Amino acid sequence: MPFTGKATYSAGTTLPEIAEDVSDLIAINSPHDTPLLDALGDAARPARSTVHEWIEDSLLPNSSVVADGSIADPETETSFGVADAATFRVGDQVRNGETAEVMLVTATNAGAGTITVSRGYGGTTAGELVDAATLTVIGNASLEGADADAARFTNRARRSNFTQIFSATVEVSGSDLAVRQIGVRDELDYQKVQRSRELIRDLENSIINGVAPSASPQGSATVRRTMRGILSHIATNRFSPGASGFPAGSTLTEAQLNAALRALWTNSSGTVDLIVVGGQEKRAINQFVASSRRFTAGSDSYKDLVSTYESDYGVCRIILSRYVPAGTVILLDSSRVSAMPLAGRSFHYSALARTGDSERGQMLGEYTLEFRNESAHGVITGLG
After folding, report:
1. CB 203 within 8 A of CB 45
2. 32, 36, 41, 44: CA torsion to nearest 10
3. Going by CATH, does the domain composed of 35-56+159-291+304-380 fall within 3.90.1690?
4. Between vectors from CA 303 to CA 299 and to CA 308, what angle results, nearest 5°?
5. Using an 8 Å Cβ cutoff, are 47 and 368 in contact?
6. What pLDDT does residue 23 have?
């Protein structure tokens, strides 16, 4: 059949010309993907109150740092200040910083913040005892037949977050419902889909960047209740290039990423399995393997992508989210993160009373972020 230029197979002189040829497809270019929510998946359970709470606990610490600026002889000093003397017990074997020396604790004074030790215990070579050096407890040795020590314990902590209401109003006139729309079978359903996409997009952004009000976070008639997001929760493991021994550099490097992962592995039982970044930092991660990448004439595709980062500290999926602020890398243990709906309040549509010739309704959902053990997660900030 010769090409006629018409959108029919048998268009000839007896068939009318097509007055309007519009594809029944509406293209949407606005970003509405939610990669982090997709990675986290649905919550295992809903929240049961607008103030959602959970309980956290921790083990007794097994390390502290030297806090004494007046050590006379670093290789022979036996009594010195520490940041937390309650960490240590008489009979503890303690490693001195990064040296090979092991010390034995012979006395503690929690009130004065000092401990007394026997240096070079077990024939180990005394190292330099310097301010801010980490003292790691290897283990405690009790005397045979000795009385029991005083009990030590940790206090469970109650953490909370608030639910946030996400809503959008839908209104379609009776005429719009009656006419035949191009690309749309039902205008009301179409508007529901559009508004729900926007609300889920906003939920992902709030999960990352949301903050709670500084006063009356529970909300009121004049205060909007908002949830705290991931970045607002992370306080312990915040890394910045060049600060506190963290590798310098305005562009994310593998050394920086490994330093952050190592710190998280050292200080918590968390297992980081998600690295959430924006476009700039994703490109930097792709460059980790640039020097070893090869391209031959026999291949017609060039791959420049790192979607999984495997290191000594675990296997991490790399999530590209446009809602992560520039210069920021978020390190998450996804087993401790959950985007939870309030029971019965996941995204849904409710029709509103008619007051005229239109159909009105509201798309609504109420969600919160459960972010357990914030010290199991980390964030790198300040990248260029």
Report:
1. no
2. -120
3. yes
4. 140
5. yes
6. 54
Nearest to 149 by CA among 82, 62, 90: 90
User: For residue 212, how many other CB atoms are within 10 A of its CB?
Assistant: 19
Helices H, strands E: what count in the chain?
A: 6, 18
Report pLDDT for 69.
Answer: 86
Report pLDDT for 241: 92
How would you list the strands of the sheet with 274-277, edge to edge? 238-239, 378-380, 329-332, 274-277, 314-320, 308-311
Residue pair 37/203 in contact by the 8 Å Cβ criterion: yes
- Inter-CA distances, 373 with 269, 288, 336, 378, Å: 10, 30, 7, 11
Q: Which residues contact 144 (CB under 8 A, 6 or more apart)?
A: none
> Per-10-residue mean pLDDT for the chain, 384 residues long?
46 49 59 88 92 94 92 92 96 95 96 95 94 95 93 94 96 90 86 92 96 90 93 95 86 94 90 95 89 65 83 94 95 95 92 93 95 96 90
Q: What is the pLDDT of residue 240?
A: 94
CA distance 269 to 378: 13
The distance between the two most distant Cα atoms of the chain, rounded to a whole number of Å, is: 111
Give residue 15's pLDDT: 47
- CB–CB of 225/210 below 8 Å? no
Q: What is the pLDDT of residue 137?
A: 97
Distance CA 345, CA 357 (A): 29
- Smallest Cα–Cα separation from 127: which of 94, 153, 149? 94
Cα–Cα distance, 289 to 307 (Å, whole number):
12
* Of 367, 375, 333, residue with least CA distance to 227: 367
Spans of all domains in the chain: 35-56+159-291+304-380, 63-140
Query: Which three-class secondary structure state does DSSP give residue 232?
Result: helix
Which one is the CATH code of 63-140: 3.40.120, 2.30.110, 2.40.33, 2.60.120? 2.40.33
